[in-house]
């Protein structure tokens, strides 16, 4: 009994090393380092976000603690960001990792238990061989009852009166093989039959040519059908090995790193930046598509390798494998030489050996050759040699692998959507009025309803969520920012220019134009330009007693001192189809007019607003088209038009806008709506609005100003934002570049 308690002489362990390794290392070798890296990464992101927010005033606007120092605001923003990340990133990711580790542990524990059913250890005593399984059940094989012991390249086979025992060598270590051989030769020498003699130094095997050759070099001619069947089995075995060696398996380390990457990709996909969002969506799509694509690429590579090998066989190139003290050499048209110190791993499966980069099917070898390959690899490779096995993953196993990651991705997406909606509702509640449906029906609202809207919109001047952005202008006084009420004659433009024309009014009320006159903009009865000897357009008198001028892409309109609206060129009205090369009266009793690219907006003396032409987006698609002059609103005190948008300020101070909103120039988040066909209320308590530029006249009135700006996007100049508004409290806001209604401070250049 004491002898039986010693260490076993051999252990027959059929559990594949890869399954055992995955079970034991399911947390990952560098899991703690990965967790620390994720936490530090999140801390860095939140610190950067807090730094930017306090540096640009976001924290002050959002938190509302204007009495705090910037350092205190930074710490508060950092604390809030880290708390949010802990609740919505680290904690869910920790749960996902533990969940995934639990699923992985249970799956591989079940596989290990399945293989352990064939596990047993052995003890040699003076009377018998004792075998013991995992449950502690023992069986004695008395030498006196053993009738036959056979050793071949694959196993030891023992026949006894009490049964048969097979000990497969692929489950044994090299020392165990030698121990079994020595003990059986000692105690069962009379019945021991050894059909396998282990080579001590090296072997050289001719594996295949047109016919299969044995280790002795003798040809074993077979019929063609049998050869084809054998080659097919080898080919399918290799492709099966390639496919099954790519399991969907992740340790906790990979889950932490992959989870944080997935989190920020999903967050970026829901960001306000369209470019960043598209890039993130593209990245997610590439990852989702890339996993099966990479598997297919590897399978395709395997198929190409099989076809190349078959071509070499058909060409008569034999495959020669040499295993010796210095390493492994494989020749088959080319050479693969691998010294033992360069080989990272040698594995044996049920159907093949994988020696570094060499795949060696067992079906291409005899039992003795398999034994020689195993013996020499165990001898020279030592611990690098292991028994492994890959099974094809079933769909439920794959889904179980991805289920925790998928749940985390869905949770992150839901949180991102919820935060975006909350931010949108906060913005909407902070804004004056609503941007909901309006239009012509609003003209029928009662005065009491308008007063109700005004009261509801009170305090809208606090909309800005950033510190003031400084906007430079060469003539701040011309904006009349400090006037309690801006008069309409202060809004008249005395200078308008586009790529082909310039019209200006001198101090005597005379309108002059210099134009290519392609559409008859000069009103001189022709469409021919008047060019000087130096190649410039000549400044030509167009009309007198003019107080205001506006210019579209293909036409020009001006307002006389008596309130008559005149126009020339390709006017966007039904009354003037085609080109009008002479000034045409369009409307009387007009206070103000402004042109978009292909339309115009007119404010009449009675406060009604009329539109003609069409509004188009940046791509030229029509957003809204009017049939002649159509009334769109009433009770208006001011109307303005940009290239692709229009705006109206009503008597109650509400601001209404419509047209292209792709850059948030209508004061509404472009994720909510990218264009408005009808006027929508976007602000209250508004005194003045400017579209496309913070000025009443074209920038060519300020000649030389833009020469100092290499790129208008490089600094906040007066023509960078799309929309500027002045509230009753004297505060100026802008939208269309960094969000909706960013606080602006004007300084003179």
UniProtKB/TrEMBL annotation:
Give the start-end ranges of region Disordered. 433-469
InterPro entries in the record: Ran_GTPase-activating, RCC1/BLIP-II
Transmembrane portions of the chain? 30-53, 73-96, 248-266, 278-294, 401-418
Q: Where is the composition biased (Polar residues)?
A: 433-443
Q: Name one GO cellular component term.
A: cytoplasm
User: What does the UniProt keyword field contain?
Assistant: Membrane, Transmembrane, Transmembrane helix
Keyword flag Membrane: yes
Domain of life from the UniProt record: Bacteria
- Enumerate the GO terms in the molecular function aspect: guanyl-nucleotide exchange factor activity
* UniProt-recorded name of the protein: Uncharacterized protein
Annotated source species: Candidatus Mediterraneibacter stercorigallinarum
């Amino acid at each position: 009994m004491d002898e039986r308690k010693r260490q076993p002489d051999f252990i027959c362990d059929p559990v594949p090393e890869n399954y055992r390794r995955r079970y034991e290392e399911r947390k990952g070798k560098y899991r703690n380092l990965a967790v620390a890296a994720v936490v530090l990464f999140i801390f860095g992101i939140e610190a950067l976000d807090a730094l930017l927010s306090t540096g640009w005033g976001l924290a002050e606007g959002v938190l509302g603690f204007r009495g705090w120092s910037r350092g205190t605001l930074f710490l508060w923003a950092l604390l809030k960001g880290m708390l949010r990340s802990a609740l919505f990133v680290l904690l869910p990711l920790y749960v996902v990792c533990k969940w995934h580790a639990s699923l992985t542990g249970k799956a591989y524990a079940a596989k290990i238990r399945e293989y352990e059913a064939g596990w047993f250890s052995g003890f040699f005593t003076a009377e018998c061989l004792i075998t013991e399984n995992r449950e502690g059940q023992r069986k004695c094989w008395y030498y006196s009852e053993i009738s036959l012991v056979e050793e071949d390249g694959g196993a030891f086979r023992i026949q006894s009166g009490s049964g048969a025992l097979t000990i497969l060598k692929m489950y044994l270590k090299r020392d165990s093989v030698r121990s079994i051989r020595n003990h059986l030769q000692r105690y069962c020498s009379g019945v021991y039959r050894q059909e396998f003699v282990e080579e001590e130094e090296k072997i050289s095997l001719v594996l295949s040519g047109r016919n299969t050759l044995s280790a002795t070099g003798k040809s074993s001619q077979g019929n063609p059908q049998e050869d084809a069947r054998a080659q097919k089995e080898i080919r399918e075995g290799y492709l099966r090995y390639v496919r099954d060696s790519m399991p969907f398996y992740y340790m906790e380390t990979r889950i932490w790193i992959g989870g944080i990457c997935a989190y920020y990709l999903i967050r970026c996909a829901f960001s306000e930046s369209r470019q960043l969002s598209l890039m993130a969506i593209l990245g997610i799509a590439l990852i989702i598509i890339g996993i099966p694509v990479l598997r297919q690429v590897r399978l395709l590579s395997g198929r190409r390798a099989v076809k190349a090998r078959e071509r070499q066989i058909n060409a008569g190139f034999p495959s020669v494998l040499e295993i010796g003290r210095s390493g492994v050499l494989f020749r088959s048209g080319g050479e693969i030489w691998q010294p033992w110190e360069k080989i990272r791993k040698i594995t044996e499966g049920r159907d093949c050996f994988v020696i570094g980069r060499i795949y060696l099917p067992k079906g291409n070898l005899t039992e003795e050759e398999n034994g020689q390959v195993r013996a020499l690899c165990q001898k020279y490779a030592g611990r690098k040699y292991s028994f492994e096995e890959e099974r094809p993953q079933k769909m439920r196993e794959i889904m179980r692998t991805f289920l925790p990651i998928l749940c985390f991705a869905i949770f992150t997406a839901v949180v991102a959507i919820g935060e975006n909606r909350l931010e949108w509702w906060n913005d909407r509640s902070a804004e004056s009025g609503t941007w909901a449906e309006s239009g012509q029906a609003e003209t029928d609202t009662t005065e009491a309803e308008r007063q109700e809207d005004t009261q509801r919109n009170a305090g809208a001047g606090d909309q800005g969520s950033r510190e003031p952005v400084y906007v430079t202008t060469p003539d701040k006084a011309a904006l009349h920012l400090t006037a309690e009420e801006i008069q309409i004659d202060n809004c008249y433009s005395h200078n308008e220019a586009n790529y082909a024309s310039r019209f200006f009014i001198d101090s005597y009320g005379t309108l002059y134009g210099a134009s290519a006159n392609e559409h008859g903009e000069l009103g001189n009865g022709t469409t021919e330009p008047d060019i000087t000897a130096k190649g410039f357009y000549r400044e030509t008198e167009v009309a007198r007693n003019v107080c205001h001028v506006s210019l579209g892409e293909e036409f020009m309109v001006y307002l006389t001192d008596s309130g008559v609206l005149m126009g020339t060129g390709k006017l966007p009205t039904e009354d003037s189809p085609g080109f009008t090369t002479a000034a045409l009266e369009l409307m009387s009793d007009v206070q103000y007019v402004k042109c978009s690219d292909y339309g115009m907006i007119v404010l009449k003396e009675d406060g009604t607003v009329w539109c003609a032409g069409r509004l188009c987006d940046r791509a030229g698609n029509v957003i809204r088209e009017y049939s002649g002059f159509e009334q769109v609103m009433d009770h208006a005190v001011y109307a303005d038009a940009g290239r692709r948008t229009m705006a109206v300020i009503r008597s109650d101070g509400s601001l209404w806008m419509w047209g292209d909103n792709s850059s948030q120039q209508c004061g509404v988040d472009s994720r909510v709506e990218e264009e408005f066909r009808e006027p929508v209320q976007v602000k209250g308590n508004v005194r003045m609005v400017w579209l496309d530029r913070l000025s009443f006249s074209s920038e060519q009135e300020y000649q030389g100003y833009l020469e100092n700006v290499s790129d208008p996007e490089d600094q906040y100049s007066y023509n960078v934002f799309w929309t500027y508004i002045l509230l009753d409290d004297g505060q100026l806001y802008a939208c269309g570049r960094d969000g909706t209604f960013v606080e602006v401070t004007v300084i003179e250049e």
